[in-house]
């Protein structure tokens, strides 16, 4: 959840750390801080501030530091409220060790009590500070910095990514990764090194990188890095070059990353579709499916898992697999799946959907699936992310870096990737004839242009946002494939505009939610051509009979619903299974414009973070 960065070089560390923290701010933004270590050994200097990076930047303004090594952190609070004191980095009481951390020290209360009894003084309420004091004791006992971190990590319960520096070893940073609290990527520059929780923070310096695996530690100075495992044995960590263009991280002409990313969907969809298949001849590739590829024909059952928006994509994937592969498929929330002792076997394929590939509940659910011997494929937008290293095979979406906390282009890209994977499964099982593939590929090929047509209507949705900007509540209704789209529409609305929004299967209406309807509780109903349209027409009438106002998402040319509803959103016609992709676009735009009108922080909504690496 938090963002971590470190730098060791020959030039000043502070500008590099600040730049990288801005790249990481989407991960957590309740406070930020940096610590630098002066080569002249005047000790560790820490600056930290509650609030956004800009507060830290102002605090550092005019600081002429010669320090060439430093670490920085942007926080999403778990233990202790957001404040200057609880912001990272945290210093040991003798001022010798400084630590930044992502994750939760689950046994911190006991450790803290023991440390206080032994004479340590705590400055913050955080679990992280215990790490600094434990390391101080190890250094006093004569350990090197790396050994002090290794010994300390062995005493911590939970998943962690930790980075530390010590005044006794200037020019050096050490890092440890335990479990799935967040990755650590190490970047190799020319005479300078970086480390960070995200690849994006390292890319401006270098594309030559290495990932720390679970239970690995690193010692990094400006000349390079050495690695050990949790037992202290040296290990080799593979270096590789990554092909990601950091320019795609810029907002361009748009006011917010979210709008930019909504607008990028035609390209994101095309890139995803055509990285996985061709139209003439109609073929599917799936180059990264690895050992899963040859086992698709044996799959008897599929379980799809994910969280939030990715869970909604998974719900659509379930329908695609049932349609094309004709095998039982179910969807589960990864945080529920991991604790319910699921029944899985070698004939089960678990498909995880995670754009970041770093979501802790997804990773833990994958660990459960692995222990039970299930075949695993992950749908991911992030090259080399943790999920891709656990799964037997990966289907990469090619949406480019998504920076807005609210997922948009990664959602639709995941949906089309699942559509193509379901086709692949159908081909492997013989439930899709090679001749049918051509037709299905033509259908998916039409989607990017249909999405582009909706996007050209953006000014219409900006005006329509007036209808909803002052409402307190909103109901999203859908049936069949439109149900996950309704859930996603509600999630987008609530997370960025803070309007209470519910996504419901329209058939559920009469079983409770209809009691809420009155003139102050508007409904958005997805009533596209194939979404059990006639049934949803009756739901619209039932809402209106209770004084509720209905905005309907319809297929272009559907005049009957246009006459019935209070307002309509018309989207181009696409094939039945792909309707939810196109119907989701106006809902994303509407959420965006409503949030802007309400003055909300669209790219960094309150209480949220882009990558959820804590439970
Ligand atoms: C909502 C949103 C979240 C994520 C969820 C899973 O707009 O972005 O609900 O979908 O946190 O994230 P990933 O896909 O990275 O596993």
What class do helices, strands and sheet pairing give?
alpha/beta
Q: Which spans of ≥5 residues are poorly predicted at pLDDT below 50?
A: none
Strand order of the largest sheet: 3-2-4-1-10-9-11-14
| Strand percentage | 15-25%
Main β-sheet description: 8 strands, antiparallel
Our measurement of the CA-to-CA distance between the termini, rounded to an integer number of angstroms, reads 10 Å
Could you tell me which ligands this complex binds, including any ions or cofactors?
A: fructose -6-phosphate
Number of strands: 26
Number of discrete helical segments: 20
Shape: globular
**Helix content percent band:** 25-40%
Rg to the nearest angstrom? 25 Å
Task: Name the average pLDDT.
Answer: 92
How would you briefly describe this protein structure?
With about 625 residues, the chain is α/β, with parallel strands linked by helices.
Q: What's the SSE blueprint?
A:
Layout: E1 3-8, H1 13-24, E2 31-37, E3 44-50, H2 53-60, E4 69-75, E5 90-91, E6 97-103, H3 108-117, H4 128-140, H5 145-154, E7 160-166, E8 173-178, E9 185-188, E10 193-196, H6 199-202, E11 208-211, E12 216-221, E13 224-229, E14 240-241, H7 257-263, H8 265-276, E15 277-278, E16 283-284, E17 301-306, H9 308-325, E18 329-333, H10 334-337, E19 348-353, H11 360-371, E20 375-380, H12 386-390, E21 393-396, H13 409-429, H14 434-445, H15 447-455, H16 458-468, E22 473-478, H17 482-497, E23 500-505, E24 523-527, H18 533-545, E25 550-555, H19 559-564, E26 567-571, H20 579-597
Parallel strand pairs: 17-18, 17-19, 19-20, 20-21, 22-23, 22-24, 24-25, 25-26
Antiparallel strand pairs: 1-4, 1-10, 2-3, 2-4, 5-6, 6-7, 7-8, 8-12, 9-10, 9-11, 11-14, 12-13, 15-16
Fructose -6-phosphate is lined by residues 307-310, 354-356, 359, 362, 406-407, 491, 495, 612.
